[in-house]
Amino acid sequence: MIIPDLDDLILEHDDEAGIEELGRRVLASGPWTTVAFLVRVRPRPDGPWEGPFLWLHRYQQVSQGWKLVSRFQTTEPVQLTNLVAALDGWRPFISSG
Known about the structure:
By secondary structure, this protein is mostly beta strands. It contains one helix and five strands, in the order βββββα. Strands 1-5-4-3-2 form a five-stranded antiparallel beta sheet, with helices on one face.
């Protein structure tokens, strides 16, 4: 699937789709762009919402627009908590510029 413009990128955001986008951040932009999404999901239409989860999507710019080429998704909320803790612990090693 080709997306003409990344500004047009929409994750399904309704009760029937079972995906609710809670936030997004562009982590890197250019010919290869990385977007982080914070989402919650509902596996069954009548079931409870689960999450939040982190989804990282990598897009490649092609002649027609943007193509999703890879993605990573946490599968349990504790993974997101552990990632936040790891990044906080690595903060002294991360340069701000």
